Every structure is written in structure tokens, then in C-alpha cells.
Amino acid sequence: MLSLIEEKAIDLLVIGTRGRGDLRKLALGSVAEELLRVAPCPVMTLAPHVETAACTPGTGFHTILFATDFGKGSAKALPLTLALARAQHAQLILLHMIPPIASSSASLSAYAPATAAAEEVEEYEGTSRKRALRQLKECLPAETGLAQEPKYVVGTDFLTEGILTASAKFNVDLIVMGANRSASAKLAAHIPWTAVHEVVRDAPYPVLTVVG
Q1: Do residues 202 and 94 lie in contact, with contact meaning Cβ atoms separated by under 8 Å?
Q2: Do residues 170 and 93 make contact, with C-beta atoms less than 8 angstroms apart?
Q3: Does the pLDDT of residue 146 top 50, yes or no?
Q4: Bridging pattern class, strands 63-67 and 43-46
Q5: Is the pTM of this model over 0.90?
Q6: Which has the least CB within 10 A, 108, 115, 154, 177?
């Protein structure tokens, strides 16, 4: 497949996934994840539960969610995201999730250690949100060329949950993410605990991934 992509100068690979769970995937691997981490072009994945007719009424994409961690993959994915949003006259939403403060509690909703004062947690989240919001706005040029003003969203949650929650809230029909490049396709296919894998597996929308 990689040889064909290079030979034909393919600039977009679209592939369906089987939606395997973590344990089964650990044993069997995933062709889709192998390709999205090593392909020289962007890869669009569609899980079995993606209803393309429902998420793209009419033609094209109407609301695009760009989830960024400000890393290399995200930086490489942004120009493509902007180009898509311009061409489709789509609403662009830029999202960054701030990870919760580690907790000693068994409850995942307990974001702060018992020893952390409530005002310290509030200050941490407020400062982090302001910094992330500034970074999101700095991602885009002064003149975006977009038909609609972009929206900037900063949340505090685990990455996968935050992306999927925001996707549902804003009724998006495409998620764009950056991914870390892997030197080995086989190794990439057997690392199940990644946000990219979880979003590709669980999102009810197409996911466009660009490796950095």
C-alpha cells in the first residue's frame, strides 16, 4: 500500500476500520492504524458506525473540529484543515484539552489531589485555559479566509473524552487530528492506548489524521 501511495503520488487515503476493542486490537493489530501513522499522505478513517449520509447532509463538510495538542502532528495538520474549511465554507472549531490534575482518588471525576486547595486548582485551570486559548488563536493567521469566524474551545478533560464530547456538542461532521509518526508500521498497530486510536475507533464521524 505504501509503495502504491508513493508511486501514484496519492494525496489522500480513505480507509474503513473494523472498530476493534483494545484487547482484541492488541493481539491482531489494525491495518488502519498502521497506515495512518506511516502513510506519507493524510488518512481519513471511517469506523463501521459512521453514518456518512447523516453527518454530511448535502455535499461536503459543514462543521470541522480541529483537535490540537500544539505538537508536530497538529502543526502539520492545520494548513490542510484551514484549506478544507475554506473550500467547504465550513465552520471551523479549534479545540485543546487540558488534562485533569492527577488524583489519588479512585474516581476519575476527582481532578485534584486531596492536598490541593480548591483555590489552587481553580487558579491552575484558569491560567492553563488562558494560555491555551491564546495559543489556539495564535495558530491562525490574521486573515483566515474563512467564510465563518472560527470558534476556540478549551476544556479540562481526558483527551479522547473531551474530543468526542465536543464533537457531539457542536454536531461536527469531520474531526482532524495530528498523530506522532512511527518508524515501524507493525509497532504502531500494536500500541492501543493512544488518543488517536480511541478517537478513530469511537467517533461517529470521519477522522482525518496527519502525521508529524
Answers
A1: no
A2: yes
A3: yes
A4: unpaired
A5: no
A6: 115
